[in-house]
Design brief:
The chain has about 475 residues and is α/β, with parallel strands linked by helices. It is about 35% helix and about 20% strand.
């Protein structure tokens, strides 16, 4: 469905008058932040005092997931309200753009001033997205990532280069600092005079690799250059998809010193992101808009950081698929913790709720403001169908149970209450739970059918790329 056709299907209420209570939203969206490496999620030494302060003021969503553990698919799904398999934005290849409305356009149509600053990297160019303001966008150059073949499996050629991506460099955060400076200027100059509700989404590149930092942040974690508790020799590293990803990224040759230094640099990058959150909140308070503004911190996906020998993303293990999600301000209880599984679609729905706008009925997500603290029946879904593994995989989380449905390898079932590190696959010993979660999955999509659609689409991409 094209953008114009889609907008014509919206109910009149979605484009008309909104409820009286209308608040602003300040969103900080980082890139590749595993929530387990932060104070609100219990990490013992990674310093994130501003995230901790936001958590005390608001609500921490303990079990938040991304739509897909890769930049373009996850961000596209968040901006559009649609599943990745629906958009067919399976990976970071953007040879075929998609014409569909963004949340910024729909909000703008309802009298909400929507602002996007920084990284875009979604289903179409920033100029087509329809935000009220698009400031310093970061589009991925076409055709994007061309390593999309799953059979035979494409392999990255830069594993050694990525492995050297740590330590002190000159101006490691220059791009992100410029984006935050632009946001500070907007908060100081425009926010106080706005006569309608606004959303300001600030998009950072960190803590995404490379894990280069300033001398101060490198020194801060000098005593914490550690190794993952469960590395390449653990049972989780033996799954076929895990082996595919290690081959794809060419990371099996990383020695202990490389692993320690990559992790040390990542800790510094996370602390840098926290510092930018502090700057944004301080500027919001100076603008006089803090009491009427919801502040949210989240990320587009996680980071494996060496667990099971895996790095970065593309895995549906917790470290890659989980994201931080902390929200404070009108509608969110101070000091609360929500165990109910949620995702980025719910966060976007909460932006509509906060601003008094109506999210299109066909879009995914329910507002976080009304999310129960402990709903064992609620299902969240994530998927990965891009390059890096031999076939598609789908995640269903319900209560303590998590199923990873692998289309070309054994399925995985984890009891996250007893086994948060996903070391014991219970798929063979708990067939009833597997069947129950598979039924929930099939309410969302037919996994084998979607795997075939993804493969057909990948072949189209390869032909368009001359392969």
């Amino acid at each position: 469905m094209q953008r114009r056709e889609f907008l014509q299907t919206l109910p009149a209420a979605a484009l008309g008058a909104a409820p009286a209570a209308r608040h602003n939203v300040l969103l900080l969206l980082s890139d590749e932040h595993n929530p387990l490496y932060s104070e609100p999620y219990g990490h013992p030494f990674v310093a994130t005092p501003n995230m901790a302060k936001l958590a005390r003021r608001g609500t921490v969503f303990q079990n938040a997931y991304c739509p897909s553990p890769l930049c373009l698919p996850s961000r596209s799904s968040f901006l559009s309200g649609r599943r990745v398999f629906d958009l067919q934005t399976y990976g970071n290849c953007n040879v075929f753009p998609v014409d569909t409305p963004s949340y910024g356009h729909v909000l703008d149509e309802q009298g909400v001033h929507s602002v996007h600053i920084g990284k875009t990297d979604v289903y179409n160019q920033a100029s087509t997205l329809g935000f009220s303001e698009m400031i310093a966008p970061g589009d991925r150059a076409r055709p994007g990532d061309t390593l999309v073949s799953r059979i035979p499996l494409d392999v990255q050629k830069d594993g050694a280069h990525r492995g050297a991506g740590y330590g002190v460099t000159a101006n490691p955060f220059g791009g992100d600092l410029k984006k935050v400076d632009l946001a500070l200027e907007w908060l100081a100059r425009k926010a106080p005079s706005m006569t309608k509700p606004w959303t300001l989404a600030v998009n950072l590149l960190k803590p995404h690799f490379p894990h280069n930092v300033t001398p101060e942040l490198w020194a801060q974690y000098a005593q914490h250059a550690d190794l993952p508790k469960y590395g390449v020799n653990s049972v989780g590293a033996k799954h076929p998809y895990t082996e595919d990803l290690r081959k794809f990224f060419a990371t099996d040759n990383y020695d202990a010193e490389t692993i320690r230094c990559l992790r040390r640099g990542y800790y510094g990058c996370v602390t840098f992101v926290d510092q930018q959150l502090g700057r944004l909140v301080e500027a919001l308070e100076k603008s006089g808009q803090a009491e009427n503004t919801v502040v949210i911190y989240t990320s587009d996906h996680g980071e494996m950081l060496g667990k099971f020998g895996l790095w970065w993303k593309r895995s549906l293990y917790e470290d890659s698929a989980r994201i931080p999600m902390i929200a404070a301000g009108p509608g969110f209880r101070a000091g609360a913790r929500v165990q109910t599984p949620v995702d980025l679609h719910d966060l976007r729905a909460s932006m509509f709720q906060a601003t008094g706008a109506k999210q299109p009925a066909a879009w995914c997500g329910q507002p976080l403001q009304s999310m129960p603290a402990g709903d064992d029946g609620r299902v969240v879904f994530s998927e990965f169908q891009g390059g890096g593994t031999r076939a598609s995989a789908f995640l269903v989380r319900q209560g303590r149970w998590k199923l990873i449905y692998n289309c070309a390898a054994p399925h995985q079932l984890f009891d996250l209450e007893k086994d948060p590190d996903e070391l014991s696959n219970l798929a063979m010993s708990q067939p009833k739970i597997v069947r129950r979660l598979e039924q929930e999955l099939r309410r969302i999509c037919d996994p084998q059918q979607e795997n075939r659609r993804a493969e057909d689409y990948t072949q189209r991409q390869l032909r368009a790329l001359g392969r």
